[in-house]
Every structure is written in C-alpha cells, then in structure tokens.
Amino acid sequence: MGRDNSDEAYVLDLCDELLGERSLRQHRFDWLLGDPAANGRRTRLPVDAYWPGQHLVVEYREIQHDQPVPHFDKPDQLTVSCVHRGEQRALYDARRDTLIPQHGIRLAVIRPADLDAGSRGRLRRSRHADLQAVQTILAPVSDEDRVTDAFRRHLIADGWTVVTPTDRWTDAEAVRGEERLIAEAKGRTQEKGIDADIGYGQLLRRMTSKSLNIRYALVVPTSSLWHAQRVPAHIRRLLRIDLYEVTDDGRVNHHPS
Fold first, then answer.
1. Which domains does the chain have, with CATH numbers?
2. Between 85-102 and 143-157, two packed helices, what is the crossing angle to 10 degrees?
C-alpha cells in the first residue's frame, strides 16, 4: 500500500479537515536528529505531520511502535544506533516526545487503538467515529500548556536553548551561554491571586543554587498580570525573578523588575 493510501494518510487527512489547515507531511526540523552514522553524519528525523499555524505535530504510531513485530523490527540487523530497528524506533519516538514540546510545539500521538481498528491495528475507516475520536485527541490543551508553549517559543526566538528541566516539576528551563532560566507558568484561572502566590512559592523552592547566573521567571496570562505584579518590583529584582505576560493571541511581553 502506498503512503497516499495508507492508514497514516487517512488519519492525517482527518486532522487536516478538523484543523482547517493542510499539514506538512514528513516534515523535518533541524534540531530533531538521528544518531550519527559511521561517517559522523546525522539524519534529520521526520515527523508524520506538522501544522505551523497550530504549532502542532501529529504522530500516527501503528502497532509496531508499541509491540514487537519481526517484519518491521528486523531483529537480525543492527542500525546506526547499534540496536535493531524496533529498539531504534522506540529510541527515536522517545526523542520526538522530549524535543518537540521543548521547542514550544504541541505533540499529539494517535494510535490504532484510539480509532475503529481490527486486532492487527488495521483501520476499518469508520469516518464518523474516527473524526470524533481524532477531534477529542486534538482538543485544545489546558491554558497553562498554552502559556508554557508560547513562552518556550519566545525563549528560542530570543536565543535561548530550551532544556529538560533539572526539577521535573519545573514548567520550562533554558540556557544561553552561562545563563540559566527556570520558569513557572500559570494559565487562566478564577483564583488569579492565589495562583500567582503559588507560582512565586514554587520558584522560591527551586532557588537551591547560589549561582548568580541563574534567573527565574513567572509566566502568566494577561488576566493574571496585575495579581503577579502585587509583589513589588524591587523584591522581584532581589530574587532575580522576571515577570512575563502571555497575551490571548500568544504574544509574550517581558515586564522587567
């Protein structure tokens, strides 16, 4: 079966229809790389589909991504990663799962089990039911995720490199030269003042290093900005906490102390 007639293409066509935007199929990012080959070169890994206007990547992962399938795994052949193809697939899937969100892009993973599929993972293509299932998977994320994703994109545009947080509860962490930035993000909430206070408290708990090269950031939506500014600027300056606002249309404004 050709790629145009594959289950993957069928699912991505459903996504295009729901999102109202044609995706870039098999898109490759400069920062998403495979392991080095014998000559040292690293191939850019493709993603199944990317919607630039949505800041969204969708991966359709068939059954070979989650269970052994000798036909696809080729256990007797080693790849450049020095493992067989099945293990390499899992390694590269994990790399996508980590790096795509770090670059401020939402990742949605769709599997045959999410849709109307047979026991071997082949889709029956029940269009109405599948559309509903895909719509649920692509539903907007929480507002905190929206704020975090917008802030990550802002950091990258400002020359920062987003890294895996040292503390797994940290929303975003980035480095630039010798600088490090640790951020706590909040979304829209009915308890704006309480959420801002909690955000400051979470940053205080992460101030475990005496290094002056580390700065902290509280990132809030416009609706919470006034509440976050109740902590006086000179106190924020002493604590090296910067305040960032994410507007409803995704712009990021820095409010220096």
1. 3-137 (3.40.960), 143-255 (3.40.1350)
2. 90
Structure tokens at 177: 């030269």
End-to-end CA distance of the chain: 59
Residue 50 has pLDDT above 50, yes or no: yes
For residue 2, pLDDT over 90 is answered with no
- Residue 67 burial class via C-beta count within 10 angstroms: exposed 0-12, middle 13-18, buried 19 and up: exposed
For residue 148, what pLDDT is reported?
92
Contacts of 214 (CB under 8 A, 6+ apart): 179, 180, 181, 182, 240
Check the CA dihedral 70-71-72-77 and report its sign.
positive
Spatial CB neighbours of 226, under 8 Å, sequence gap ≥ 6: none
d(CA 217, CA 173): 10
pLDDT of residue 226: 97
pLDDT surpassing 80 at residue 223: yes
Give exposure, 182-195, as e/b (b: 16+ Cβ within 10 Å): bbbbbbbbeebeeb
Q: Where residue 15 falls among pLDDT bands split at 50, 70, 90?
A: very high
